[in-house]
Amino acid sequence: MTIEATLHRAHGALTTLSNGRHAWLADVNKTLGSGDQAPDPHDLLDSALAACTALTLELYIRRRQLPVTDLKVRVEHTESRGEDGRVHYQLERTVGIEGDIGDADRAKLLEIANKCPIHRILEGNIEVRTALAEPGVSA
Questions:
Q1: What distance in Å separates the CA atoms of residue 57 and residue 109, rounded to the nearest whole number?
Q2: 139 by DSSP, 3-state: which?
């Protein structure tokens, strides 16, 4: 899948993101010279984990027909820089489950949460390669 980002410089740093089927926005806050009109990239990264966790759990809950009445996932992050200059980005995820389910089902749901695809990607080995497009050629 390809994600394309288009910067709208007339609106600060407001950026439209698209995967060809859906479009959403990203921005930076006012202190960085934009209008804070959409989530910043950190929020988007954190929300990918929250959404994937909730959706993965919902699919499991449906398949097992568990009597869950409410499900919420909260993700917070802290960021620091080590002496070597590398960023340490720590995600704290809390899963709230309401319903008449026992401890064994709750434990299994936590196990399933840790198997969501975004969780696995974030804990894996991520490599980013970057290239410049030729002038006049769309990225």
A1: 7
A2: coil
pTM across the whole model: 0.90
Q: 69, exposed or middle or buried, with CB in 10 Å at 0-12, 13-18, 19+? A: exposed
Residue 3: both structure tokens together: 């994600």
**DSSP-derived 3-state class of residue 22:** coil
Tokens matching residue 22: 């859906």
Distance of CA 125 to the CA centre of its chain: 17
Whether the CB-CB separation of 65 and 88 falls below 8 Å is answered with no
pLDDT per residue, tens digit, the chain (139 aa), is 899 999 998 888 999 999 999 999 999 988 988 889 999 999 999 999 999 999 999 999 999 999 999 999 999 999 999 999 999 999 999 999 999 999 999 999 999 999 999 999 999 999 999 999 888 777 7
Nearest CA among 7, 69, 66, 15 for reference residue 43: 15
Contacts of 49 (CB under 8 A, 6+ apart): 75, 91, 93, 116, 118, 119, 122
